[in-house]
Amino acid sequence: MASYKAERLAQQFFKDPGIARRFLADREAVFDEYGVPEHEREAMREGTPQALARIQLHPILCIHFLMGIDPGVQRMLNGEIVDWLEENPHG
Amino acid sequence: MGRIVGVFGTAHIVMSPQGVEEKARDVFDGMVEVGRRVRDTKPTLLVVITGDHMFNINQDYQIPICVGVADEWTPQGDLNTGTKVFPGHRRLAEAFVEMAAERGFDLAKSEALRPDHGVSLPLRFIAPRNDIPVVPILLNINMAPLPKPSRCYALGAVLKETIESALPADERVAVIGTGGISHWLFIPRMGEVNAEFDRDFLRKMAEGRAEELSRMSAAEIVEAAGNGGMEIVAWLMAAATMPKAKGKEIYYVPVEKWGCGMGGLAIVP
Asked: B25: distance to nearest CA of chain A, Å?
């Protein structure tokens, strides 16, 4: 599995939206702050499911991380269900 | 004594309908129907059992099972499910933790967990006005050692005992287990759906055979239904509150694009 340092960073991405913003602006500063080892930085810079699998980042934390850095993943997961339910609150 | 008025199971996530509009509609309709059937039981209290998605139970504190004991809950708001506060039910939650300790289960309690989509999405169609108290129970299906399905089922029996002994007679409790059926999340086979497993699971659940299903090992579930498929332990725990009761499949939609077998079930006496 990935190091706790990398996973501790990934698990902050949803809880603290500021992390994603700071990460996108200056990845190295955030890596330094969390002490992420170099080989894991490489995978997280790449930011693809394949790269994250290579370092064995926890599968659920892959989602947290990708939702923070990839608007496409956000769109896929933030489906239209909520709007739909608002329009049809009682079925 | 409190009365268990129904047991329900449902998927708790939906993704973009784009490209799978018809299947998404079937899922939406199924979820709404589960919601309608829960409301038909006129519950005064909901117990929602789900896997946590590492919003609350993460690598910092790797808690096996956590019961939310607070008087109110603010959802995490993930997956755009909103952050509208809903009431908790301290009396049942505390009594359950106490009873569990008596029966050999040491459960964590939380005043501060933020229910994620595993609780908040089903509530959108079960209790859209957020007016029914909820006891959230989070199962850690993401970290080793994975919960044994048979232990989850046994814990469901303790929940039944608690509801029937610690609540007044006018309390009507609906117990809801949430989670997808087969899905592989960021591991090999991601995107697969094992519809055969899913349909067999739903059929056996509807036949009142949850105890039999709980004899599967966690490893067998992961092999057949993926790491995400472990969410069925929430359904098994819920079903244990109404042992051997027969029910009805409400919906099943294998949505390959979402990489998940989506199902719903109602067991109402």
From this structure: 10
Q: Give the CA distances from residue B134 to residues B9, B244, B258, B263, in Å, rounded to whole numbers and listed in that order.
A: 16, 25, 28, 22
The pLDDT of residue A86 is: 58
Average pLDDT, chain B: 96
pLDDT at A91: 42
Which residues of chain B lie closer than 8 angstroms to A11, CB-CB? 54, 58-60
Per-position DSSP letters for chain B, written without gaps between them: --EEEEEEEE-------TT-HHHHHHHHHHHHHHHHHHHHT--SEEEEEEE--SSSS-SSS--SEEEE--SEE----GGGT----EE--HHHHHHHHHHHHHTT---EEESS----HHHHHHHHHH-TT--S-EEEEEE--SSSSPPPHHHHHHHHHHHHHHHHHHS-TT-EEEEEEE--SS---SSTTTT---HHHHHHHHHHHHTT-HHHHTTS-HHHHHHHHTTGGGGHHHHHHHHTTSTT---EEEEEEEEGGGTEEEEEEEE--
pTM tops 0.90:
yes
| Residues paired with residue A6 on neighbouring β-strands, in sequence order | none
CA distance B252 to B34: 12
Residue predicted with more confidence, A45 or A72: A45
Task: Spell out which residues of chain B touch residue A43, defining contact as CB-CB under 8 Å.
Answer: none
What whole-number distance in Å separates Cα of residue B47 and Cα of residue B26? 25
Residues of chain B neighbouring A91 (CB-CB closer than 8 A): 29, 32-33, 35-36, 125
Summarize pLDDT for B238-247 with one digit per residue, the tens: 999 999 999 9
Task: For residues B246 and B206, give the distance between their C-alpha atoms in angstroms, rounded to a whole number.
Answer: 5
